[in-house]
From TrEMBL:
Signal peptide: none annotated. It comes from Elliptochloris bilobata. Residues 4-153 form the UspA domain. SUPFAM superfamilies: Adenine nucleotide alpha hydrolases-like. This is UspA domain-containing protein.
Length: 155
């Protein structure tokens, strides 16, 4: 039997915990692997000086590393114990990139495709219709663009 991979895009929220719980209760079978994907901002900058015409900006590597470490710690604290309690194998990936909704959705879809994921399991975050219209939705992007099956949990 080949190993199946269940992709769960996560952030440090109770909604993501619900997605992990649902995946473990409803999709996971012995031998499967949970794959936690957390997308963080790719670059942090520090303004060193200048005026509006000549601003000197430098990448802040330490801030970028801290974001990466915080995301890893959040996954290890919130989700790894749930997988371990179910004796489920899991992997953690912290992906750096653009963090607008469409870019995160694209990252999730590409990763699901490359993993040949059994499914992507995510929770729809509660936002007003106006915010969704202006900003879009990661869940909406994934549901409409992902080649793999997508399970979207409501509230």
């Amino acid at each position: 039997m080949t190993k199946r991979t269940i992709l769960v895009p996560v952030d440090d929220t109770a909604d993501s915990e619900r997605a992990v719980d649902w995946a473990l209760s409803n999709l996971y079978q012995k031998g499967d692997e949970l794959y936690f994907l957390f997308v963080v901002s790719g670059t942090s900058f520090v303004v060193l000086g200048g005026d509006a015409a000549e601003t000197i900006v430098e990448e802040d590597k330490s801030a970028e590393d801290k974001v990466f470490q915080d995301a890893t710690a959040a996954v290890e604290r919130r989700f790894a114990p749930k997988a371990a309690a179910a004796s489920a194998a899991y992997k953690i990936e912290i992906a750096r990139g653009l963090t607008d909704n469409e870019s995160i959705g694209d990252t999730v879809c590409k990763r699901a495709d490359s993993l040949n994921a059994l499914a992507v399991v995510m929770v729809k975050h509660q936002r007003s219709a106006i915010k969704k219209w202006f900003m879009g939705s990661v869940t909406n992007t994934v549901a409409h663009q992902c080649k793999q099956p997508v399970v979207v949990l409501g509230h």
